[in-house]
Amino acid sequence: MKVTQAEFVISAVGPDQYPEDALPEIALAGRSNVGKSSLINRMINRKNLARTSSTPGKTQHLNYYRINEDLYFVDFPGYGYAKVSKTQRQVWGKMIEKYLLERDTLKLVLLIVDLRHPPTKDDEMMYDWLKHYDIPICVVATKADKIPKSRWQKHVKQMKEALLLRKTDAFVMYSSETGLGKEELWAHISSAAGLGQEEAQQQEGEHHGEA
């Protein structure tokens, strides 16, 4: 997908702040410091639209990024960061749960994990929770550039087995540094958001018009 326009829209804390234009939404979930901001920036070819931080727990709201007037990336607060108070974690948890269960325009959750390490308990819980509620998932294993190619498959196998990944769920090996997996991930996102279908319908309409 060619990104011609990308903008930060709002840091939302509740449904009354969510955009109302009914564009498809792709949510990004993952533990703190797993590289969600870097992934967003690489996907949209921008250096720092999504603010990367060396301080985990920086994202405290649902950050909305509008892409090409076609869809939104919705960046969640990172989970599993110990320095955030239990009360704050509960507030985030309720906000995210409400969004995931009630947001009609949500089309796909990208579960971002670190390919270098086995999934954390939080990663496993998030995956199981999303499966329980039948929410579409694509697991994205970042930081592939930090592992020798010869060990990629070993780490992928370890990741899939630990998560008990269903065959029906997409899995993309990714690197924000090299762009590995970028096109494959865009294909999954476009399909979930129905973007390919719209283009096909448009072209079909044009053919009918010519006929």
Task: Write out key terms for the chains shown.
single chain, alpha/beta, seven-stranded mixed sheet, 36% helix, globular, septation, P-loop_NTPase, G_ENGB_dom, nucleotide-binding
Task: Provide structural commentary.
The chain is of the alpha/beta class. Helices cover 36% and strands 20% of the residues. The protein is built from six helices and seven strands; from the N terminus they run E-E-H-E-E-H-E-H-E-H-E-H-H. It has a seven-stranded mixed beta sheet, with helices on both faces. Strand 5, helix 3 and strand 6 form a beta-alpha-beta unit. The longest helix is centred in the middle third of the chain and has 17 residues. It is globular and about 45 Å long. The two termini are 29 Å apart. About 7% of the residues have low confidence.
What is the radius of gyration computed over CA atoms, rounded to a whole number of angstroms? 17 Å
Arrangement of strands in the largest sheet = 1-3-4-2-5-6-7
The percent range for strand residues is 15-25%
Low-confidence stretches: 54-58, 199-208
Helical residues, percent: 25-40%
Q: Give the terminus-to-terminus CA distance.
A: 29 Å
Succession of helices and strands: EEHEEHEHEHEHH
The total of helices stands at 6
The number of E-state strands comes to: 7
Summarize this, please?
The protein is α/β, with parallel strands linked by helices and 211 residues long. The protein has six helices and seven strands; from the N terminus they run E-E-H-E-E-H-E-H-E-H-E-H-H.
